[in-house]
């Protein structure tokens, strides 16, 4: 019995270690902030010119923004969205659209590509994934800017659900007027 336990314990340890490594590789870090872990204080400590931007209507948590340098060339504005328990659930950056290919290539090197639309003319977009985080790059055709969003799936689901309910309420109000 003891001999079997001696053989099983090292295997069990390796399995636990492999599981913890896998969990760590699933963490998504952007601008030095880890999605699902970083706090508003972490953002304020990391960047200059951080402003309070109110409470997010989807996560019901605080939002912080910066128009300053975040370490990525050309970023004009960055919005950090937190959950009610003040954990980072989304980061949105606005930057010049001419950086689409550079940003796409950088994301493709680190994340799984799920979908991409890259016409020569027209809207360009890409969606990447790692664990429960979606990374969305959107460059509208008739804009000089593009957005890069890192968001937890739970936040995106709450966003979609809230929008669906608001659209239904608007349709109901409209029907009531006709």
Structure description:
The chain has about 180 residues and is α+β, with helices and mostly antiparallel strands. The chain has 4 helices and 10 strands, in the order αββαββββαββββα. It has helices spanning about 1-25, 40-45, 100-110, 155-175, and strands at about 30, 35, 50-55, 60-65, 75-85, 90-95, 110-115, 125-130, 135-140, 145-150. An 8-stranded antiparallel beta sheet has the order 3-4-5-6-10-9-8-7. The protein has a two-stranded antiparallel sheet with strand order 1-2. The longest helix has 25 residues, at about 1-25.
Helix content: 25-40%
Label the structural class. alpha+beta
Q: Could you give the distance between the termini?
A: 79 Å
Summed over residues and divided by their number, the pLDDT gives a mean of: 85
Query: Strand percentage, roughly?
Result: 25-35%
Topology, number of strands: 10
Sheet with most strands = 8 strands, antiparallel
Radius of gyration: 21 Å
Widest sheet: strand ordering: 3-4-5-6-10-9-8-7
Shape: globular
Sequence of secondary-structure elements? HEEHEEEEHEEEEH
Number of helices: 4
Pick out the low-confidence regions: 1-24
Write the layout of secondary structure elements.
Elements: H1 2-26, E1 29-30, E2 33-34, H2 40-46, E3 50-55, E4 60-66, E5 77-83, E6 88-96, H3 100-110, E7 112-117, E8 124-130, E9 133-139, E10 145-152, H4 153-177
Antiparallel strand pairs: 1-2, 3-4, 4-5, 5-6, 6-10, 7-8, 8-9, 9-10
Précis, in short:
The chain has 178 residues and is α+β, with helices and mostly antiparallel strands. It contains four helices and ten strands.
